[in-house]
Amino acid sequence: xxxxxxxxxxxxxxxxxxxxxxxxxxxxxxxxxxxxxxxxxxxxxxxxxxxxxxxxxxxxxxxxxxxxxxxxxxxxxxxxxxxxxxxxxxxxxxxxxxxxxxxxxxxxxxxxxxxxxxxxxxxxxxxxxxxxxxxxxxxxxxxxxxxxxxxxxxxxxxxxxxxxxxxxxxxxxxxxxxxxxxxxxxxxxxxxxxxxxxxxxxxxxxxxxxxxxxxxxxxxxxxxxxxxxxxxxxxxxxxxxxxxxxxxxxxxxxxxxxxxxxxxxxxxxxxxxxxxxxxxxxxxxxxxxxxxxxxxxxxxxxxxxxxxxxxxxx
Length: 314
Prior knowledge:
By secondary structure, this protein is of the alpha/beta class. It has 2 domains: 49-205 and 300-313, Rossmann fold (3-Layer(aba) Sandwich), CATH 3.40.50.300; 210-295. It has helices at 2-14, 21-33, 62-75, 103-106, 108-117, 127-136, 239-248, 278-281, 303-313; strands spanning 49-53, 80-84, 95-97, 121-123, 141-145, 157-163, 188-192, 202-208, 211-213, 219-220, 230-234, 253-257, 274-277, 292-295, 297-301.
């Protein structure tokens, strides 16, 4: 049911479907309420704070960018910490995330970030409280997973991630369109799917890394699945991007899309070889199955962007 609603909304937001009048009315009401929010905090914390987010609703490639930035900061001698709301988790309390945490209690994206980067990650509905906690642990820079709209969190650098193909859709505010708030200036605009740094936007591409088996941890290149009968599942903001990447790599899969942050059950995984994103893989228990494979992607950024970003953080 949720997948059907998402499909209809995407047709309105990013397709040519007419916006129904109830959505237009709700969008206008939403726009009237936005100015009632508090302004972005002008205070500063003891360390730089980098907010990575989007003005559209999900599916832009934010998590791969955060992972790349955290790893870059680590390579430059910083001790980055990541704060997140932990969207989709069942718990509401503040929690530290490590590689043994459960996606159900901390959220799929924070868990994936913690496993790949090994950086301290804290989930809290109050990102400022989470940032102060990590600073107390000795973190020298804070990276916020989402948070452009979380105005209580002071920030040194704002980075917007935008899908190069989808853009801002029809340009309407929620729920008539995909915009969480009117587009405003930020320090860096990164376009996922743009090959070069042009028109004031930095390009970002996603490269597919060797796949790994969820049960055996065997590593295998994606091209080894060419010509085989495989299934692909995705519970992410823009599943078509994942399915298209498989097709571009020569893999012809039977594809099934689920809502973003979907909690996978055994019946959701077809019999036979199944490919999925890493974000989905952290929510899947392989059990006795040895035919479940995660397909990792990593963000590729220009040297110019990384140097410009480093200068702003310093």
